[in-house]
Specification:
Shape: elongated
Strand order of the largest sheet: 1-2-3-4-5
Number of strands: 5
């Protein structure tokens, strides 16, 4: 009986040790994988940002210099918008909006919109979408250069009332057989420009300080 009890006790201890080691290994692998995935996402986000604003234009840690807003003016159906602030030598340069057009033809369209301090667009990229292949997916740069047409545009160029696709009386092209996708992207970019114009000093509080009289 004594030998049997010792055998059971030894087996139990060994099983417990194996379980502990196994759990530790799995936890370590999960942690390492989680950190690697987070680093990959961060690198991808930075690459996308550098497409809408050249890295030579800023020198701050842009991924850490951010704020999150939720405002009806952006018309994201309540989804929060992250704004990354680009600075050079401590001075504001541009704001990059990670925003969403909630009513694409097949669902939300996630966008990256760069706005320079003077209110002109430094660039626009579509991050993800579920638009129809061969039609609505032309909003994506790898399928067409349509999105490059926003570079340098502002609420004055074209005038604000012309910020729409041509079918709606605006100046921006739509796609044959697919008007909804470009229509909602144009609207989302216009909303972003309007928000920036109204909240520039909220995004960059130092600008408000600079405008105060001596």
């Amino acid at each position: 009986m004594k030998i049997g009890f010792q055998h059971i006790l030894t087996s139990s201890i060994l099983l417990g040790l194996f379980a502990l080691v196994g759990t530790t290994i799995v936890a370590g692998l999960n942690l390492a994988t989680k950190d690697r995935i987070a680093a990959n996402h961060e690198a991808m986000r930075l690459r996308n940002m550098n497409q809408v604003l050249s890295p030579e234009n800023y020198d701050n840690e842009i991924l850490k210099d951010k704020l999150v807003v939720s405002d009806e003016m952006l018309q994201t159906n309540g989804r929060p918008v992250t704004i990354y602030r680009a600075r050079k030598d401590g001075q504001p340069v541009a704001a990059i909006f990670e925003t969403v057009a909630p009513k694409g033809y097949s669902g939300p369209i996630y966008l990256l919109v760069g706005v320079k301090l003077d209110g002109t667009l430094s660039g626009v990229r579509v991050l993800s979408h579920k638009e129809t292949p061969g039609l609505g997916d032309a909003i994506e740069l790898r399928h067409s250069d349509w999105v490059l047409g926003f570079n340098g545009k502002s609420l004055q160029n074209p005038p604000q009332h012309l910020w729409a696709v041509k079918r709606d009386g605006g100046v921006f092209d739509q796609f044959t057989g697919a008007t909804i996708s470009p229509r909602i992207v144009v609207k989302s970019i216009r909303n972003t420009l309007e928000y920036f114009a109204a909240h520039k000093t909220d995004i960059f509080p130092s600008l408000q300080t600079e405008q105060l009289p001596d």
